[in-house]
Amino acid sequence: MATRRVFSGIQPTADSFHLGNYLGAVRQWVELQETRDAIYCVVDLHAITVPYDPDALRRRTRVAAAQLIAAGLDPGRCILFVQSQVPEHAELSWILGCLTGFGEANRMTQFKDKTARGGAEAASVGLFTYPILQAADILLYRADEVPVGEDQRQHLELSRTLAQRFNHRFGETFVTPAPYILPAVSKITDLQDPASKMSKSSSSPQGIIDLLDEPDVIRRKIARAVTDAETVVRVDEEAKPGVTNLLRIYSALSGEPADSIAERYGDSGYGTFKKDLGELVADTFAPIRERTAKILADPGELDRVLLDGARRAGAIARETMATVRARCGLPPVA
Fold first, then answer.
1. Looking at residue 334, what is its pLDDT?
2. Is 106 in a helix, a strand, or coil?
3. For residue 126, which of 54, 46, 8 has the smallest C-alpha distance?
4. Closest residue by Cα to residue 293 from 16, 108, 76
5. Prediction pTM value
6. Catalytic annotation, residues
């Protein structure tokens, strides 16, 4: 039986990944490379759908790749590359865009969410067609599964729809990808606003724990996390969202059920609970921070690894596009 293939990507839109990125994506990527044919990329083309600084993008792309390797991705066990170094992503995106209805694209909730403040008129066409490029990323590698958060489920549904539509119109070409979701860690919220998802775009600096934060900074952020007026540590999503979020983080990093952790700390107050959680997070991220710095200190080797990944990914992408072009009536490329 052939090994199932997974594909996923992460944007280089900040100087560090945060705790939500790590628990919701990066950590499971590391686990999946052991049992799947795994392909991962830093999706820099997605990062230019909004105004950006080229130097910052260049730096953040390298930092993102370094963090992925430092967190446990092994370029010998998976394919790791930068999206823009494989031009077939953009080519397939155009073809899929020609199969996507305007109303269909207009129903994507993330575009509505991201333009809620500035309005759709101020948004780029790239932001609007972002889900189509995301579909191209996935379908290009004929992925069986896609590790995604709950907020990306709708975009994956578009990928499935477009795969089926292309296959029906032009002949069996693409795999219809299935979501790979870990519900237990799908909702890590802002430390200062437990009603909101932990996010670089909307959270305050104190509401986010960055993978590259200094240990003391991590401890302080956990210590200052919003809880409630009670002193009892227990799981209660409605009445105690802040404490429940901290228990979710503790459980995800320790492997211990949240209810067991809550029972251990009970009504002893939040001080010891937060102190122990701060140490756990700091101890988890410190080696990743150190390895990231070491990887970035040798830019030539990092470039070599990423170019090798792009070469391997490109071989798969070119094979897919040769089939796509032939079935669409387009001539072969030189």
1. 81
2. helix
3. 46
4. 16
5. 0.92
6. 114, 197, 200
